[in-house]
Every structure is written in C-alpha cells, then in structure tokens.
C-alpha cells in the first residue's frame, strides 16, 4: 500500500505519525484542518482504538469534527475545553521563525482561535511548505459577506503602503459561487508574492472593518515536524532552538497505511 502513496503523502503521513506521539492521555488537543491534519486525526484514532489513548479533541472545522468522530475521538467544543494542552495542524507555508501562512483549506479563523488557546502549537508539514520569506502562497483573508467588494478594495489600497511584491486579490470560489467558511464568511486571497514584514501586515489587515481574520500566524507555532518522502522526519523547536531527526520504516508502516487509507 505504501507504494501507492505519493512522496508528498508519505511525507505528510510520517510528519503526522511523529506528532501523534506528542499526544498523551488526559490531554485536550486542538485538531487542525487539511490533508496533513487528516492523517494526524487518523493516527490518533488508531491510538484511541488500539492503545487506549483517552483525549478530548477540539476540531477546527466541521470536516475535521466529522473525521474525528468517525475514528472514535471524543469531540468537544473549545468553550467546553476552555484551554488546550496542544494543537497540531498543517500549514501552507512556514519560515525560519516558524511564522506561518494558513487558510488554504479555508479554516483559518477557527484554526487561529484554537492554536492561540493552546499551551503549544505543533505544525505538521511536508518539505514543500518551507520558505525563506512568506508570501508565495496566496494569503487568505476572511471577510464578512456584507460589503465584501468594498472591503477587498480597501485591502488592496492598504497594500500600496505595505512591504509586499504583489497586490492582486481574488475572491475564493467554490465552483460558480463564493466559498463560504464554517462561520458563514468569504475569503479573499491576496497574491503578494513576497511579504517583507508579516507582523506589520497581520496587524494592519485585522484593523480593517469587514476583515475578520488573516492567515498569518505570527509567534503562535512552537514546533514544526517536517516530513520527507523517504520516511525521514525533522523536528524543529523554536523555543529550545533544537533540531532532531527520526526515520520511519515505510515498509513497516505498510499495514497502518492500508488501515488509514481505507
Ligand atoms: C486549512 C489549513 C491547512 O492546514 C493548510 O491549508 C495545509 O493543508 P494541507 O495539509 O492539506 O497541505 O490552513 O485552513
């Protein structure tokens, strides 16, 4: 089964599999959204079923909530949990300071609230997500539907005074209709190419009326677990300044792969 997975999927899988080891019984855990986070939820489901892991999971989207319930994780709301021990989520880009762009899957608002309400945020990612400077991936900005075109125009105007290379923006679509987030909002993707000052941009965007949240996660992520297609995993921790490596035997994981891809 492992040979049927692409190198990227293998990288995502080993990163999620390693991060699942951070989760201990009794923890309240934020569960991210996206394809890498889905591997994590499946790995945690295996541990719940086979190893008796007892956790409360707080999902960051309806998609993740559904998957978490399917694999047997006890799902609660953030308000029930109040504060989380750990959140594990994917990312669209991360830089050397572990600042992130998130929201490619449209769940940035709940993802940022959940990650911020956690003692620790661990990002799971394949090597393709690492960048020197954020901005090649379009930056998602969640806006309320009321007057979204006016908000978009204001955002574009504001970008003139920001340290960015591109200023185009597009309304995210779902086929013929605007994409709608779990909170009933729209997403405007900013094609900035290069973000010179991500911290400043994140603050400025969130001050604009109509903007609910942006996909820049600054000083939120503590650890990145980086997966490679050959089974290698690199764990970078910004607090300790440490880099560790581990290698999974992908042949040995074959049974788990076939279980999890069902
Ligand atoms: C969803 C996200 C995802 O974490 C991000 O898009 C990465 O997704 P994937 O793991 O599928 O590459 O931010 O809003």
What does this structure look like?
- The protein has 262 residues and is α/β, with parallel strands linked by helices.
- 31% of the residues lie in helices and 25% in strands.
- It is built from 8 helices and 17 strands.
- The strands form 4 sheets. It has an 8-stranded mixed sheet, sandwiched between helices.
- A hairpin with a 2-residue loop joins strand 10 and strand 11 (177-178).
- Helix 1 (7-20) packs across helix 2.
- The longest helix has 17 residues, at 35-51.
- The radius of gyration is 18 Å and the shape is globular.
Give a quick rundown of the structure.
With 262 residues, this protein is an alpha/beta fold. Helices cover 31% and strands 25% of the residues.
Largest sheet: 8 strands, mixed
Distance between the termini: 11 Å
State the helix count. 8
Strands ordered across the widest β-sheet: 3-2-1-4-7-15-16-17
Written as H for each helix and E for each strand, in order along the chain, the element string is HEHEHEHEEEHEEHEEEEHEEEEEH
State which percent range the strand residues make up: 25-35%
Lay out the secondary structure.
Blueprint: H1 7-20, E1 28-31, H2 35-51, E2 56-59, H3 62-70, E3 74-75, H4 78-81, E4 86-89, E5 93-94, E6 100-101, H5 108-116, E7 121-126, E8 139-143, H6 148-159, E9 168-171, E10 173-174, E11 177-178, E12 186-191, H7 198-206, E13 211-214, E14 216-217, E15 223-227, E16 232-237, E17 242-247, H8 254-260
Parallel strand pairs: 1-2, 1-4, 2-3, 4-7, 7-15
Antiparallel strand pairs: 5-6, 6-14, 8-12, 8-13, 9-12, 10-11, 15-16, 16-17
Helix pairs in contact: 1-2
Bound molecules: ribulose-5-phosphate.
The site of ribulose-5-phosphate has 18 residues, from helix 2 and helix 5.
